From TrEMBL:
Annotated InterPro entries: ATP-PRT_HisG_long, ATP_PRibTrfase_cat, ATP_PRibTrfase_HisG, HisG_C, N-reg_PII-like_a/b, N-reg_PII/ATP_PRibTrfase_C
Catalysed reactions, as listed in the record: 1-(5-phospho-beta-D-ribosyl)-ATP + diphosphate = 5-phospho-alpha-D-ribose 1-diphosphate + ATP
Protein name: ATP phosphoribosyltransferase
Broad EC category: transferase
Source species taxonomy: Bacteria, Bacillati, Actinomycetota, Actinomycetes, Kitasatosporales
Source organism per UniProt: Streptomyces fradiae ATCC 10745 = DSM 40063
Length: 282
């Protein structure tokens, strides 16, 4: 049975469970459940603190886990990411009060507050910056107002938390993060259970980002229409009862769907429909 670590709290928890549910797995009904067996799919889920997941996976006690790239790197665990999941996207950045520093080179002798000590200590060492790091569990934006640090390094999504604290980002992003699937570094890549799990999640990612598009067009416009809707492999083209017309079916990225429909219409295509994809295996 495949043993999978799932975040039990925080920004990763809800979207991770939603994705697993969409992939056909049983998910816990209430947040106090810490272990859940899904015998039909031959998997066992362990609901763990997001920060601990890479550590469990690197120990080999669990086969794979869902966590954030930033948490994986911060842990220093012997684990590697094998699939990006597209949620909990953020950047990890330094921030200060305006005028404190114009980049990390100015941080010499300063104190930097963060919940991600591993990432920050390594970044400072790589840049040869001699600054102190103070570890805080959260709400690090307030550390500057309270005089615990002159600089913070934290997760930034919309920037609202920084703005509210009167802070601004300094220097380039240290890294960009999102939810990822991790496994122990060098674990066998061909494990059939892991492969099946990854295919299911990839299916969810594709179903979320593509729509199925159907339309009718004149045969003489087919090549131009197919150029607009090349599909993944190649579109399905079927003859219509009316001679000189064909029906075309292709997957189209959801974000492009309206523009593609406009362009197809302008080309003379009609009865242009899009439908959601609920599940898929590529
Ligand atoms: N506002 C946010 N937007 C997007 N991703 C975020 C946000 N806050 C945290 N994350 C991501 O969530 C993961 C951190 O999860 P974790 O549960 O430790 O913290 P949290 O979501 O801040 O919850 P907590 O309330 O326990 O602090 C990291 O990968 C981080 O990049
Ligand atoms: O750029 P924003 O959209 O404002 O998002 C970033 C904020 O979200 C997270 O905080 P969270 O609410 O999880 O509190 P925490 O600092 O206690 O972790 C993160 O630590 C930042 O503070
Ligand atoms: Mg947080």
């Amino acid at each position: 049975m495949l043993r999978i670590a799932v975040p039990n709290k925080g920004s990763l928890s809800g979207p991770a469970s939603a994705m697993l549910h969409e992939a056909g797995y049983k998910q816990r009904k209430e947040s106090k459940e810490l272990v859940l067996v899904d015998p039909d799919n031959e998997v066992e889920f362990f609901y763990l603190r997001p920060r601990d997941i890479a550590i469990y996976v690197s120990s080999g006690k669990l086969d794979i886990g869902i966590t954030g790239r930033d948490l994986l790197l911060d842990s220093g665990a012997n684990a590697e990411e094998i699939l990006e999941l597209g949620f909990a996207r953020s950047t990890f950045r330094y921030a200060t009060r305006p005028g404190t520093a114009s980049g990390p080179a100015d941080f010499h002798g300063m104190t930097i507050a963060t919940s991600y000590e591993g990432i920050v200590a390594k970044h400072l060492a790589d840049q040869g910056i001699d600054a102190s790091v103070v570890h805080l569990d959260g709400a690090v934006e307030t550390a500057i107002q309270l005089g615990v640090a002159q600089v913070i390094a934290d997760v930034v999504e919309t920037g609202t938390s920084l703005r509210n604290a009167g802070l601004e980002v300094v220097g380039e992003p240290i890294l960009t993060s999102e939810a990822v699937v991790v496994r122990r570094t060098g674990a066998p890549a061909d494990d059939p259970g892991v492969q099946r799990f990854l295919r299911r999640l990839q299916g969810v990612l594709v179903a979320r980002s593509y729509v199925m598009m159907d339309y009718d067009c004149r045969a003489e416009h087919l090549e131009q229409a197919v150029a607009l809707t090349p599909g993944l492999e190649s579109p399905t083209v079927s003859p219509l009862h009316n001679e000189g017309w064909v029906a075309v079916r292709a997957m189209v990225p959801s974000k492009d769907a309206q523009r593609v429909m406009d362009d197809l219409y302008a080309l003379g295509a009609r009865a242009i429909l899009t439908t959601e994809i609920h599940a898929c295996r590529l």
